[in-house]
Hints:
Shape: globular
Largest sheet: 4 strands, antiparallel
Distance between the termini: 40 Å
Strand order of the largest sheet: 1-2-6-3
Low-confidence stretches: none
Mean pLDDT: 92
Helix content: 25-40%
Structural class: alpha+beta
Amino acid sequence: xxxxxxxxxxxxxxxxxxxxxxxxxxxxxxxxxxxxxxxxxxxxxxxxxxxxxxxxxxxxxxxxxxxxxxxxxxxxxxxxxxxxxxxxxxxx
Length: 92
């Protein structure tokens, strides 16, 4: 059963490092569902944005332990996908 692409891709990552990756390597970073595999991520990105992707790398990030006074908690675990867009040579 095919899942909705919006259930796989949650949000783009907005940071200086992600913008450097876009400029230098044409690579975009997204927060994705922990259960999604690379094939599902690639199909979801291609369906949502109507572009062709060449490569998908994933990162499983553990949440940091944070402390506020006596209380100790932790941030949630996340999964990120680094997706490289195909460069179209016919434009140049």
